[in-house]
Write a structure and sequence with these properties.
218 residues, mainly alpha, Serine Threonine Protein Phosphatase 5, Tetratricopeptide repeat, 12 helices, 73% helix
Length: 218
């Protein structure tokens, strides 16, 4: 296995491990420790690895080493302020529970790459979970300004508008997304995996999740 494939395998394996660390089974704790050892072994063999500024702090955070992860990403961002280092620091701050700092850093990341939508989706999700629907909506609308059909931002914006009492039947719009047929050919999933973004299935799942939150508070 070449260097890039090995790093990619570590990343995808780490993404499958749930968070936070305190909730992990002994098996998952051993898995994340093993992934860290594999990553460090690759560094010894190849030197600086691609996306190390994102993957190492993610492994540290999933290992429950939150302060270490944030200290690393903060230093990386000071040394080289860019989209990747800002996102790494934002994720480390979020894992450490500092959500306001995470929002600030995701916002900086979005400023480093104005074409990126994901940072605004992250900000929106954090603020929505905090029930700060006005701030969440602002973030989702920034994403929608770039892609008016974004399948994550669209149902999320409908939900926020409904919660804010904005004029319009936003609950019906949310249900319409939840009830759409979606792509059944499999091609859409391949394309979103390759090029990023969210497909119609993601939109359906997101809409149904948000509707379930409505049911919890009914």
């Amino acid at each position: 296995m070449n260097q890039d494939d090995a790093v990619r395998e570590i990343f995808h394996s780490a993404m499958e491990i749930p968070e936070p660390f305190s909730t992990l089974s002994d098996e998952d704790k051993a898995r994340i420790e093993g992934l860290m050892r594999s990553f460090e072994a690759l560094e010894q063999t190849y030197g600086i690895l691609p996306y190390a500024e994102i993957i190492r702090p993610m492994l540290l955070g999933k290992s429950g080493r939150y302060e270490e992860a944030f200290a690393l990403t903060e230093q990386q961002y000071r040394n080289a302020p860019n989209w990747k280092t800002a996102v790494a620091a934002a994720n480390a701050a979020r894992r450490a529970g500092n959500l306001d700092l995470a929002v600030a850093l995701f916002t900086k990341a979005g400023e480093h790459d104005p074409d990126d939508l994901t940072c605004w989706l992250e900000v929106g999700d954090i603020r929505l979970d905090q029930e700060q629907f006005g701030e969440a909506l602002v973030a989702y609308e920034k994403a929608l300004a770039e892609d008016g059909e974004d399948q994550w931002a669209l149902p999320s914006a409908f939900y926020c508008r409904h919660k804010l009492g904005t004029e319009g039947n936003w609950l019906a719009s949310l249900r319409e997304v939840a009830n759409q047929e979606g792509c059944t050919c499999g091609l859409e999933g391949c394309l979103t995996t390759l090029f990023g973004g969210y497909g119609s299935t993601d939109g359906i799942d997101r809409a149904n999740y948000l509707l379930s939150k409505m049911d919890e508070t009914a």
